[in-house]
């Protein structure tokens, strides 16, 4: 056997072993999401038994426990969808910008969507779910373009550090504008403040159904961008040399991320840090290949957001902590760790 054939055999064995590990990780993540989903249905301000859970699934609502389970079902579904959307959007944003600090919250995309919704409510009186969704998507898109344009100014173009600084500054500015708009409007202030915390409480299947088509479009665009993101990870010059249109690849993937961020913010409010944490955890499991990373980011994001929601129900009984507060407590220390250990290098 020649040296070349031995080398090819070793590479094949390494790939086979790597795929085996990834499949095991996939099974583990799916099992974890299933367990967390079951806990989300069973745990709340009051715990319920298996008989009441099965009765609620069958559509029989005969007591308070069964009614509680019926209310948790749409909340669980929304948590899974929102977590998958934010986790996937974070992985795509990190791939598009080659920035380990990229996140819908840190880059100002979520707050841009929030500002657009607040302007729509306060100045234009929007009230329907569809109006909220498309207004939030418009705001998320404008914010993403604005932050990227600011981060691209000066020598070196859009470096990770400049993008992070531009996003952080834009987020602060957008938040200040939200406060300035809401303060004189007592008629909308209470609802807007609750929505801005970020949460999935009060979800219904009817409200969630309004956002599902947009989320599906975002999921499809992001997952189809996996090969393009792998090319971009090699650098713009090499990606172009391989025949990839760099501008189109970035725009295609970014559009999917904007749809996911805007739609999720419209229905849940701005939920931060999930898009930062999830891609880093998934790279530890499956590496940097976006064909594996993106699906894992969606699944892991779904599990983490729903898990954070369950924790929020437990630690503040008989009240609840909104999931946006729980993710902030977890995400802020993780952000500091990334800053210290990644040193803001490009991906």
From TrEMBL:
| Name of protein | Iron ABC transporter permease
Name the source organism.
Paenirhodobacter populi
Q: Where in the cell is it found?
A: Cell membrane
Instruction: Please list the coiled coil stretches.
Output: none
- Superkingdom assignment: Bacteria
* Pfam families to which the protein is assigned, alphabetical: FecCD (PF01032)
Q: Which GO terms describe its biological process?
A: siderophore-iron import into cell
Give one GO term, molecular function aspect: transmembrane transporter activity
The record's comment on protein family reads: Belongs to the binding-protein-dependent transport system permease family. FecCD subfamily.
Membrane-crossing ranges are: 21-43, 76-93, 105-126, 132-151, 163-184, 204-226, 247-272, 292-311, 323-340
Q: How does it sit in the membrane?
A: Multi-pass membrane protein
